[in-house]
Amino acid sequence: MTYSENRLSSAALRSAGPKPDGEERGQDKIHDLIGVGFGPSNLAIAIALEGMGAPGLCAHFIEKQQSFVWHGGMLLPGSDMQISFLKDLALQRDPSSPFTFLAYLHENGRLMDFINLKTFFPSRIEFNDYLRWAAGKFNACVSYGEEVVALEPEVSGGSVDVVRVISRAADGRARVRRTRNLALATGGTLRVPELFAPFRNVPRIFHSAAYLSNIDSFDFGCHPAPRIAVVGAAQSAAEIFLDLTARFPHGRVDMIVRGHALRPSDDTPFVNEIFNPEFTDFIFRQSEPRRRALIADFKSTNYSVVDADLIARIYDVLYQQKVTGDKRHQVRRLTEVTWVGEADGAVVLDLAVGPDGEEARAFYDAVVLATGYVRDGGRALLGGLEPYVAIGAVGRDYRLATAPEFRPAVFIQGTNEGTHGLSDTLLSVLATRGQEIAEAVVAAHAAPGAALASPMLRQLGRV
Fold first, then answer.
1. I need a surface site. Which of 87, 88, 162, 370 has the fewest CB within 10 A?
2. What is the pLDDT of residue 221?
3. What is the CATH number of domain 192-265+303-370?
């Protein structure tokens, strides 16, 4: 079943697709919501809208990828989720929803088999399949292969009721859609250390986000013992290190770590409560200094840490090398890259090693940057809405502060860690956050002409 034929997707999520002339047919058409990006965050909104069943509400989503995929470059064999499947796209909001992970298992005939696994943590490959399954219900409401390149206020009589969303398809054609509300979920951009920035176009230096698509493209069959460095000390770096040691059993893999040891993530029950939806209310109410202190205090749950079982597996690899005397793989601790270059087809790294920074030089056939992401909240796009929108001034309801004459609501997701806590960039609160945003959109649709009031207008100095 596809939801384009059913309930909200035929009404609330109805959208005319892009037309050959580059403009959507019917310039008077106005959406109630356009979602920029269609990853898990905006998918959760679509699911919440579907469950609310608001007749006549029109929403559409625009995604630059050609199809739905979640961290496709890191769907490694044997990699498991780090959160429970119960924190899916719907269960915390509505356990009876047809979009839960359990509903996915049931529809695909694997519910009893999964129960027999006796685990709360499905493989990352399976959870991606679950997300694709859910996204597939909304294909009629999503334009894949289009990148939103600009947002423009449509000014009439001194006020703004509508935002123009301009996107560009792979063939270069521009499309324009109009909307009363926006939900931005643009994800993060790749964090590339400054030393590696000049080498962005060097094929053998690449970010972990593109790991699978890159590692298989090298002709290491002619070089059965490749030298590969993994820069980073968090979960992705650890997973890639283990994958490489298995993928190239005769190769040499170095994990370059600035610290003295790989640190375990803290997923104990009391600490895990910071990812409960109600903790968002608690942390948002705190003063800014107190919020910073809380986030720093719980940093070990999410940043520069590795699952304890993965650390144990890496330690075992290194120990077995000691047993056999074949020390090919290393976790190079207290090591920092100080210079990057190329020579004779190899990547050259100068390193500062140990507490005294002893100089060393290493040559690699490939370097993987497991260095994380930068999240800017879509600032480049939002620049087109200035001076109506206060970029960075976000309320508890994920809305940016706006001027009185600007009536659309602009919701920002996945970039509010500083105000909403560590769960904001994760899957943990998607179901409840999607519901909150969906309820605001439905309320505005039920009261046409009424702006979604911003709780932070005074920050713009216009009230």
1. 162
2. 57
3. 3.50.50.60
